[in-house]
Amino acid sequence: MLAFIGGALLVSVLVAGSTYYLADRYLVSQRIEAATEQSFSNIRLAVRYVEPEQASLAELVGLLEARGTFDVLLTKGEQWFPSSISITPGSVPDALLEEVRRGEVAYHFRRDESHLVFGSPIPGSDITAFFFFPVHEVAEALALLWKVLLAVSVGAVMLAAIVAVRVSRHVVHPVRLASDAARRVAEGLLATRLPVAERDEIGTMAHSFNEMAAALEERIARERRFVGDVSHELRTPLTTLRASADYLLERAEELPEAHGRAVELLSADLDYLRRLVDDLLDISRLESGPVNLSLERLNVGDLVREVVARRSRSADGEVRVEVEGAGDDLTTLADKRRLERVVGNLVDNALTHGRLPVTVRVASANGTIRLAVEDRGPGIGGRDLPRIFDRFYKADPSRPRLDGRGSGLGLAIAQENARLHGGEIDVESIPGAGATFVFRLPRISEEGG
Predict the structure, then answer these.
(1) In this structure, what are the phi and psi dihedrals at residue 373, rounded to the nearest 5 degrees?
(2) Least confident of 131-140, 260-269, 397-406
(3) Per-residue pLDDT at 403
(4) How would you list the strands of the sheet with 127-134, edge to edge?
(5) Which residues contact 240 (CB under 8 A, 6 or more apart)?
(6) Where are the alpha helices (DSSP H) in 51-135?
C-alpha cells in the first residue's frame, strides 16, 4: 500500500512539476515575445515622430503610453521624461543601461522584479527609450496554476491511497493471512483455517487451503493414533517378555554360558524396546492435542540435583552440578514431571554420546533460568546440528546402542517439553571439543504471569 501511494505521489510530483515548468517557460516567453513586438512598434513610431526635430518629448511620452499598458521613460542627455512618477532613471537596471548606451537593443527580466524592461536607442536621434511592461499577471497565472496542480496532486494521492487500501484489503491482506496460516500449519497448528468471505479467486484459494489443512490434520491425526495404539498394544507383551527375561536372568548361572549370554542380550534389547515404546507414547501424547501442565513452584537447581542423583553413573562423580544464584532467582512455575524429563534426557544424551565428565550448570539472567549440559565428547558435525532434534536422527547411525539408550527420540521429547514451558533448547558444538545443550526457561513468578 505504501509503495502504491509512494508511486502515485512520485508521478503526481513529476507531472505537476513538469507542467508548472513548461507553463512557466511558455507564459514568460510569450510575455517577452509580446513585449518585444510592442517595443519595436513603439520605436518605429518614435522614429517617425522625432524626424522634424521640433518634436516634444513630453508629447511623445504621452503618445507612446496611450498605445498599451506599459510605462515609458525617454532620456536625452541629462533630461528624462517618464510616463509615471514611479519611474526614474534608477529604475533601469545597470546592465541594461550599459547595453543601450553601446547602441544595442536589449531587455531585462527578473522574477523578483515587477517589470520586464525593454531598452533601445531611437535611430536618427540622441534619444533613448525604455519601456516597462508589468509581469504581475504572469506571476498571478502561475500562482493559480500552482494551486490547481497542488490540489490535483493531493486529490490523485488521496485517490491512490483509497485504491491502495481497497487493493490491500481485497488482495494483499488475504494473501498475508494465507501466508501466516501456512506458517502456523508448518509450526504444527493444524487446526488453522482461513475465513472464506467471498466467492472470488481469493475465496477459492482460502477454501482450497482449508480443505488441504483439514486433510493434513486428519492424516496426521490417523498416524498419531496409529503410533499411540501400536505403542499401547506393545506394552502388554513387553511386560510379559520383561518378566520372562528377568526370570531367566535370575537363573543365568544354571544355564550354559552361550545361553546366559543370549539372555543378557535379550534383556538389553527388551530394555531398549520398552524405552522406545515409552518415548513413542510420550510423543503421541504431546502431539494429540493441547497438553495440560500441572504447574507447581520449583527450584530448578534442586530439581537438577535430584535428577542427576537418580542417574546411576552420577554416583561415581561422572556428572557435576554447578548452581549459581539465589533460591528465588532459580524458582519458577513448571510441570515437575516434564521438567525432569527435559533435564534427564539432556543428561542421558551427554552420558551416552559424550565423554566424561559431564557438567550441568544452572544460573539465572534477564528473567530466564539457563541450564547448560556440557560434555567432552567428539562434538556434533556442522551438517548434523540443524537436525539434532529431529526424531530418530542420529549423528552416527553406526554407533551401537548402550544399555538400552539411543532411541533417537530423547532430544525431540526434551525440545517439545521445553516449548510447553515457553522455553527453547539450543546446541553449541565444536567438533572434537564436546557439545553444550542450553535450555532457557522463562522464570514465572505466579500462575498466568
Answers:
(1) -115, 115
(2) 397-406
(3) 47
(4) 79-82, 71-76, 127-134, 115-121, 106-109
(5) none
(6) 57-65, 94-101
The superfamily in CATH containing domain 295-442 is Histidine kinase-like ATPase, C-terminal domain (3.30.565.10)
Q: Stretch 164-192: mean pLDDT, rounded?
A: 79
For domain 2-140, give its CATH number from 3.30.450.20, 3.90.230.10, 3.40.50.720, 1.10.10.10: 3.30.450.20
Query: What pTM was estimated for this model as a whole?
Result: 0.49
More confident residue, 265 or 331: 331
pLDDT, residue 344, reads 87
> Cα angle at 440 between 436 and 441, to 5 degrees?
145
CA atoms within 13 Å, Cβ hemisphere of 38 = 24
As its CATH architecture, domain 201-287 has Orthogonal Bundle (1.10)
Helix (H) or strand (E) holding 127: strand 127-134
> Mapping DSSP to helix (H, G, I), strand (E, B) and coil, where does residue 425 land?
strand
The pLDDT tens digits for 8-58 are 888 888 888 888 888 878 888 888 888 888 888 888 888 877 765 555 777
**How far is residue 442's CA from residue 424's CA, in Å, rounded to a whole number?**
9
What distances in angstroms separate CA 433 from CA 146, 223, 259, 437, one per listed residue?
73, 39, 41, 13
